[in-house]
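Batch job 17 of 40 flagged for manual review because the log was empty.
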Amino acid sequence: MSDGPRERHAPGAIVRVAMRDFVTYSNAEFRLGPSLNMIIGPNGTGKSTLVCAVCLGLGGKPELLARAKDVGEFVKNGQNKATIEIELQGFPREPNSVIERTIYKDNRSEWSLDGKRETAKNVKELIDRYNVQIDNLCQFLPQDKVASFAGMTPQNLLIETERATGSPQMLYRHEKLKALHAEYKSIAIAAESNEHELAKLKERQESARVEVERFKERERLQAEIELLERYRPFVEYSALANQVREAKGEARQKRLEHETAKARAGPSLQLAETAMNLFRQANEALEASNAASDKALRKYTSKCKDQDSFTTFIDEQKAAIKEYKENRDKLKRELARTKQDLEKNEEKAANRPDDSRKGELLDRMSENSQLNRDATRRRDEAKSATDAVDSQLAKLNARITVCQEEIKTLELVSNQKLRHVQKVDRETFDAVVWLRQNKHIFKNEVFEPPILTLTMIDQNLTDAIESVVHRTQMLTFTCLSREDYVTFTENVIDKKRLNVPVVEYSGTDHPTFDKWKKICSPAQLQKLHFDGFLLDAVAAPDPVLNMLCHAANLDEFAYSRRALSPAQRDQIEHFVTADGNPVIRRYISGKDSYFLNRSFYGNRAIYTQTRDVRATKLLSDGGVDQERKAQLTQEIDEANELRVVLQQERQKHFSVFQERLAEIRQLKNEKVGCLSHWNRACESVEDLRGTIQDLESRPDDTEEKVAEAQERIREYLNDRENYATKLVELLERVWEARKDFVVKSIAALKKRSDAMELKHRAASANEDLQRLAQEAKDGMQFYSAVAASRHEQLESMMLVMTEEQQEQIRELSDKTDMTLDELDGRIAGTKRELDSIFGGNQHVIEQYEKRQSEIGKLQEKVETSNEQIRDLHAQITQIRSEWEPELDNLISKISAEFSEAFKSIGCAGAVNVGKDEDYENWSVQIKVKFREHEQLQLLTHQRQSGGERSVSTIFYLMSLQCVTKAPFRVVDEINQGMDPRNERMVHSRMVDVACQENASQYFLVTPKLLPDLKYHQKMVVHCIYSGTFLPDPSKEPAKMGLGRLRKYAEVGRRLRQALTT
């Protein structure tokens, strides 16, 4: 390092920087000059480490350096903490300030000021007092922020320039203007909206005036109907009084008629009583006759049942006899056939083979027969298993064919929809084709837009869906993760330049479709006359439905296929939550869309907006059922796997079948070789002899069984004859008893009929008279009671009526003497007149009065807003009149310096203020020209090279010198990318600016410099070198000053002077 001349540092300039265990330094100290400090050295030696120490030591954050995220990462490897010590030049007559910051590996920091522990806040106040702005790129430009400065927006550059060079009031006024303009714009928009709403309300109020007048006429007619209805009890009471008088006269007349009829009916009642006594006697005789008849009939029925059992028994015995004879004949035929077979086989057995081979042949025959049976059984089992597997394979192949055909049908629909997308939006079509070809690069599935994946469950709602889901949402891709979202945008939007919408909701409250909840139950929805939600009318993958819920609120959109009446819409409007907000905010009724909102002003009434349902025809006919296609594909995969297993199993069973078949053929060949006619004959002879012996040993008792059965038949026939004789006798007694019963029944019925007729006539006449008398009495009592009750009611009504109502009743009673029919006719006529006046209802009046109130409030709001706008405009005009000239003057000075700097290198440059109606968009516009044939152009990343941007950046920073208040400026490797000519001229300009009187302290960090550059006595050059041959300061502190080459140069100069003299 070098010690520069001992000129006086400006207040806030850096006098000294010391570091311990910081990044690459174990122990280092820089003593800095008050003007231009050139810090040079090879890459990696620690030049930028000094810049990092200045930033962090003066309270800057690691983000400003863009080198590390945490401050603990600046501690040297192998150490637990690092220390930065910075000495700042104090104000006149004040000592220098020494700031020390200790940084720990765990990102903690400790601060001290002049050797005493202090808080970071107090240290920051001291740094602000020196006007040190570490976060201002115009003052502190580290290596990794050079590109950021060149890429800084003109708006931000203006802010940073004001902070670095302007007065405190300048930046404050700028921020105040931005805030006032934003408020002005907000109030103006609100005022315009209120004026528009006010005009609409006045228009609706005027259109409702006629309806209000109709309503008032309806109210008058309703009041008249109420008066007539109130008068009804008086008319009814008058009619009841007349009815009471008539009922009393009728009751007296009925009593006289009843007494006269009662005297005439006496003899008829006595004859009826005599006839009833005769009937009772005849009825007793009839009951005795009926009992005897029933007894005889029961006995006859029992005998008939016995006869039926006789017949059944005889039939059973005959059938048994027939069976005995058939069994005997069958046994005889079987014995004869067996004897014939025996004779034939005995003849064959007579020709026996050689006795020496007989035993061997018999043993082999028996053994082969058993093996043949076993092999045949195993062959049949293998054949059955193979047939079963073939049956399953046939069914699987048929099912696979059906699934493949269905998938082809679905894919045909999918291709039709894709061609439709190609017509609608070419970019979306290209993105879909690319996605289908590159699915493998995504972590999860990326879902195609709803225009392809959405299927209408109810085709009648297609227009409704298209009116709710806008075109952009219909063409939106859906990702399931942020990683896939970035991959999609980088490939499709950035690389392929396709302008298609894409979304992902992994970080939202509803990352998946199952997180959405219904806003009301199906029962509530039905009660409000809705058919359902639009979400239920479509089918799509869950992530696509989730996107439609986020973007189009499809889960909140209710619908009714038919148009709802005004009363039904009013019911929906009054269906609100506990805090008064409508539950159903959006719905479709027929061909109209309705949107319910709640006002933010006044009584916060709910108002409705209406739009026509207009289809965009984005959805083509039909749709691809992706879920069904996935099910079919899975079913085919599973069937193919099962088919492979079954084919393997069939091959195994078929191999076993072939082995068994070969074995059977071999056994048959062996059996043919060893069997002969003699073998079979010998076997048959033995079997047939045993069969004959068994048949002959069976006893023949057929004749005995037949005789026993015939004897039982004869005994039952004798018993049957005796029963028949008795049955005839019983039948005769039953006939006589029934005949007697019929005669007596007729006589009893005749007597009863005569008695009942007489008694009925007498009783009927008496009942009629009594009923009439009672009805007359009841009528009189009823009318009297009703009249009394109505009188009490009238008195009660008169008590609760107002004087006006009583006067109206009296006037009506004096003017007319109406009957009930006349009263009803007048009420009906008034009601007809009322019904003829359409449209009047209380809700209209309430809405009219509510609108009138809203009109008043809106007028007040509009006047208030206009007053606020005028006030804000005045404030903006006043502040701008103070801020704009100061800003123009500041930029003018900077532009002059900037132009002079560019002129010195044979180029041109200028700086001006970009002005706009919105103060957010005011900016500093840097314009440069590096070639003669060019015009001045804005400094941007796209127009100028890296070297040109570096030249412009350093010249702009130097131009701030004329207006700056910063104690120092840091520029790290600004000369990188410049050609030698520009670098030499920039260096020369920097030396001139930095080394002039009263200039700010400068730090220029660079890894290399051109030879023969301009030098000034105020410059201090710091050469940084690190290596294995340098002494370790921690072990040899005395050699800390080894790098101060200037000291040794001064000693050499004096020595040369002494020698020459």
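Reviewer: the log was empty due to a logging misconfiguration, but the result itself is present. Residues 1-5 have pLDDT under 50 and may be disordered. Unflagging and moving on to job 18.
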